[in-house]
Amino acid sequence: MNLPAKLLVAVALLLGPLAPAEFVRANGAWGVRAGSAPTTSADRLPVVLLAMDHATRLALDDDVGGAIDAWETIAEANAGEEAEAVAILERARLHAGRGEFEKATGLIDDLYARHSGFAGFGEAVALQFGIANRLAAGERRKLGGWFPWFSDRDSAVAAWEKTIRLAPNGPLADECLIRIARLGVERDLAAKTNDALERIISDYPASKHAPEALALLATLRAQESLGPAWDQATTIEAADHWRTLADQFPDDPRAKQAVEQIAVLRDRAARARLNLARFYFLSRNNPEAAKLMANACRNIAPDSAAAKEAEQLLADIAKDPNPPKSLADRLLGTYPRPRMGTDVRPQAVGEDLDGLGFKKEAPKAGVGPDNR
Q: Contact at 8 Å (CB) between 105 and 113?
């Protein structure tokens, strides 16, 4: 550090810390915002403002290392005061500017811990958000401010998460979540993507990104089902997300797509019941179960192609409850039809079962003084 800077630091240390004041930089110099009421005497405030101007000039002259040292000294000389908060923020900016992202985020954490009520804290949140965006774009960290390290785009997720923790109700929270989701889709981070989308829908329902979140979540849920032969819980959930999108955001360009997707997904879910109905009727000789599944198919998607096929199956069963015989049926006999009895209580079979169908047990010998 040069001699003028050391003299300024020495004077600042002798004069002691400042009282809280809102510092701003305007017209190339630091000052106090109009309307704030610092309680420091008139002879103290100019010294710190002069030190701030000196640190800023060092940065403008590309002496970033000297500027960082100057701001660090200002912070130490004004511990607990707003001047310290300004100094921490400026150091974080300088470290971020030369690619030292870990140091910058560490200083932002320090600022949050020591000065959470700092008037310029929103600028720190924006700085953290900018660091996350740079990581997501593939920018490399620089060790020592000059040596490029490996790119790590996935680390942007943690940086965006930190931005949300700093200001969960701030204007950048939902923006961070949608960016996490977009990167998650691109990088195949399923858990992070689903969590971010669900948080947008539940925590920020009025967000401008809510329609996109609903569409993305519906698409991901639909992809989890491999077709009508598999479980359809996620298919129904996907259709519900599309329905929410169509109902709550009818003017969104995705609303038309939502109507089309609902029809496709409902047909898929209905066809799963239709497949079960055909299985029970053709392979298990169980027309009653087949009718239950066919009616379930019609209830899920009454206007779908699967529902029309279910109606035809019901008509065939009503016409002849006996399924057509396959070659295996002709060789081995038809599958035995389940007995439709009116008494559904378990029937005892054999002398070793009781009236409820449980195995009888011999009475146990009592344990007492006479049975020892």
A: no
Instruction: Look over the chain and give the mean of its residue pLDDT values, rounded to a whole number.
Output: 85
Q: What pLDDT score does 239 carry?
A: 93
Q: Note the pLDDT of residue 73.
A: 94
Domain count, the chain: 2
| Domain final position from 95, 110, 142 | 95
Structure confidence by residue, pLDDT tens digits, 132-150:
999 999 999 888 776 877 8
Q: Which residues contact 62 (CB under 8 A, 6 or more apart)?
A: none
Q: pLDDT tier at 79 (50, 70, 90 boundaries)?
A: confident
HSE-up of residue 237 (Cα within 13 Å, Cβ side): 15
Rounded Cα distance, 252 and 214, in Å: 12
Q: What is the domain extent for residue 163? A: 98-205
Cβ–Cβ < 8 Å for 236, 276: no
CB 149 within 8 A of CB 140: yes
Rounded to whole angstroms, the Cα distance separating 359 from 370 reads 29
Distance separating the N- and C-terminal Cα atoms of the chain: 95
The answer to whether residue 286 is domain-embedded is no
What is the C-alpha separation between 164 and 133, in angstroms, rounded? 14
Which of 343, 344, 325 lies closest to 334 in space, CA to CA? 325
The verdict on 199 and 104 lying in the same domain is yes
| 336 found inside a domain | no
Nearest to 307 by CA among 258, 259, 272, 283: 272
Q: Given pLDDT bands bounded at 50, 70 and 90, which one contains residue 15?
A: very low
94 contact partners, CB below 8 Å, separation of at least 6 = 59, 64, 67, 68, 71
* pLDDT over threshold 80, residue 65: yes
Task: Select from 183, 174, 161, 175 the least CA-distant residue to 202.
Answer: 174
Is residue 304 within 8 A of residue 272, CB to CB? The reply is: no
